[in-house]
CAS1 domain-containing protein 1
Amino acid sequence: MGGSQSRVRHWHRLGHSAIPIRIALLTAIVIIFMSLRKTTTTYLEKVYYSATATDDNCSRLFQSGSLKWNLREGTSTWRPRDCELRYRSLNDSVKCMGTHGKSGKRRYIVFIGDSRVKQLRDGMVLALTGQDYDALADRTASVDPIFRQAHEAFQTSGSSLVAAGARLRFDQHEYLDDGDGGLTELIRNLTTADEVPSLVVLGVGAWQIRQCHRGRKPQNTCAQHYSQQFRKLLPLLQELAQTTDVLWLPQGALREHFLRDGNHVNAGFTNHNMIKYNNEVRRVLGSEQASTRKVVYWQSAWETSLMINDGLDGFHYGYNSKHVMTQMLMDWICHPYEGDPELNANRPNSNYCCMLNK
């Protein structure tokens, strides 16, 4: 995490003498990715765009982009349109949160959803402490026993951890509801709480896909019901967005060949279905009624999960895709203080998305 770029670990172990091997690997990756893109785009009847939280360049972090590969170093950098993501070291991330603390505005970040959303919370913990809880993304992940004992409680839903001055909270909700369930109540409570979050990352849908499959219902019918449920939740999200940045995390891309083992846990999990449900949210957010509000559809999270696609079990985020998404969040959180002389003594790359407004 301390490097300036997201490093693909397997390539990192290759020496400079292995450049031809890297080129061959990249060629294979490009061929596979282009094939996947061709397959994926057949699912999309129309691309739906939603309003972003601001009109500045920093909001490009959550829009479409691409990976720029460095063959010599075996690294990749996420590049939105006309700018690039800034990757922060542990020290840079801690300094950012410290700057927020000095201003009297401690960052309070809430993650809501299933285990993939929890991975992003764990990604923030890693970015701010160097402690890696996420064995779903990295089987070698280990945590200092003293740190684990001190913060064991934060692993449960609804609990919080303070890391580098930031308060991180995860609430487990795997389903949308019809306006009278636990998720609706949680959003309502966050809106009226004494301490309002500075950022909410919310993503729900995968388990509704599985429930639909198990119930032997048509996915189109279930997706329509999912859309209706999201419409009911949206007014509360819009109200929360008046004081809080609200990001909708789409369902991530799968490594389908890892899931085709007859395991009932993965029933219904296909990229086709993930895109189908994602498009329902995009339709609602792209509607005229929602277009002037600040609920942001995190398109670049979907694209990152599709392009890197490094999950160990086919469903959860892999180390590198999660790292890129975590850095997007860090860049967004830190950008109000990018001009702080203590934070940027040497004036970083002016092409960073969140520096172009300075």
